[in-house]
Structure formats: structure tokens, C-alpha cells
Design brief:
mainly beta, 9 strands, globular
């Protein structure tokens, strides 16, 4: 009788353990990434801090035609995939002639063939551009489109240094744009 009770309790515990097994999400096809300005700021051992931080997802081309087809011209785009791309300014910055306070914002774009409209928006923690709210725009500025010599498979963001701060560089497929950011 004790043996049957022991086996019953063991089976009950095994069933409960299986029922509480953790289930993790599979790896996303558009993985998240982070880029800082200066580029080595997160790894710096000298106590220096980043001035800008961008968290974004990196969709892949996968043989598709990107701009004008997948990301339609004249339509709002979240500048990446999945959750909205978020940018954190650690100091006041100036973009397109407008000063922006330190804080976290979302980034959107309206791509066109020859120029893009880059949008900095107050609304964060959203998925896609489905709930984009134009009334929360902090600024809109136009930037020219540049062609890349080689196809860039994954959407990418990086920074280059300029005389007043940084250029945030976006690239995907054969397209690149630069957004000048003056750091105060």
C-alpha cells in the first residue's frame, strides 16, 4: 500500500513539474540590437557614458524588394521591425534645427525614392506603426537618400562622428540615409 502511494505521489509530482515547464519564445527572425554613440560607449572602461542609445530590430531582405514595395513610399514605417525603434538621448540634442530634451523617444520614417522624412515621436513601447500617433511627434525632418555599392541584407543603424556630434546612419538593401544630430 505504501509503495502504491509513493508511486502515486511520484507520478503526481512528475505531472505537476511537466505542467509548469517554462516555454521560451523561439528566436525572432528580426533580432533586436543596440547601438550607442560613441560606438564603444557601453564597453568603455574609462567611466565615459553614452550620449545616444538606439534599440531596434533588424529585419532581413530575404530576396525581397524593400523600398517602394515591402516598405511603401509615402507610408509611415517604424524604422526596423517588431517593437518601435527607440532612441535615448542622454543630453540635449538638435535635429533639423529643433532642440530635443534628454529622454527616450521612438523613431519612424516615411521613405520616398529621393528623400525620407525622419520622425522623432514621444510614444514608446508600441509594436509597429499600427498605433502611430502623429500628435506625439517631437519633430519631422527630411534627409536625402544615398545609394550603397553593396546590398545590405539586414536593416542596420550605426553612427559616424561629425563636427557638431554624430550622424545616425540607417542602411538596408541598396539604400542609406544619414541624420545629423548636434549634441549640446
Amino acid at each position: 500500500m505504501k509503495r502504491i502511494s509513493f508511486i502515486g505521489v511520484f507520478i503526481l509530482f512528475a505531472f505537476m513539474a511537466k505542467a509548469q515547464e517554462l516555454k521560451f519564445s523561439p528566436i525572432d527572425s528580426s533580432p533586436a540590437d543596440i547601438v550607442y554613440f560613441p560606438l564603444n560607449a557601453a564597453k568603455a572602461k574609462d567611466g565615459s557614458l553614452p550620449l545616444i542609445k538606439v534599440v531596434y530590430s533588424r529585419p532581413a531582405k530575404k530576396g525581397r524588394e524593400i523600398f517602394g514595395v515591402l516598405e511603401q513610399y509615402g507610408k509611415i514605417w517604424r524604422l526596423g521591425a517588431n517593437e518601435n525603434t527607440e532612441i535615448k538621448f542622454f543630453k540635449r540634442v538638435k535635429i533639423g534645427g529643433k532642440t530635443i530634451k534628454p529622454g527616450t523617444y521612438s523613431l519612424f520614417a516615411i521613405p520616398n525614392k529621393d528623400k525620407w522624412i525622419i520622425i522623432v515621436n514621444k510614444q514608446t513601447d508600441r509594436w509597429g506603426a499600427f498605433t502611430y500617433d502623429e500628435t506625439k511627434d517631437v519633430l519631422r525632418t527630411e534627409v536625402p537618400v544615398k545609394s550603397l555599392d553593396k546590398t545590405l541584407e539586414n536593416f542596420s543603424i550605426t553612427f559616424t562622428t561629425n563636427a557638431l556630434g554624430a550622424n545616425m546612419v540607417f542602411g538596408w538593401d541598396k539604400t542609406s540615409i544619414e541624420l545629423p544630430i548636434e549634441i549640446k
